[in-house]
Amino acid sequence: MSLDSPISPDIDELWEHRATLTPADQGARAVVVDAVSLLDNGTARVALVDPDTDEVVVDERAKRAILLSFRVLEMRRAPSVGSTATIGCH
Questions:
Q1: Which terminus of the chain faces fewer neighbouring Cβ atoms within 10 Å, N or C?
Q2: Is the pLDDT of residue 86 over 70?
């Protein structure tokens, strides 16, 4: 099964340059936020089960978008109930 990702191929290009990305990269941030929004609203999925083989197929763009979000979204500590702190983004 070949997974036809609804996520922009721009994610692949960003992935190739991930080491240089920062939260200051507004264009990269917009592409990543759009991709994560597709995951949030259910348009894209990180993985699907291939009905022919019953194997899980990963959408590499979705996986990369999630990982890139840690590079381009500013991380900050946020208080959490029941623990000292969690990591959040804004």
A1: C
A2: no
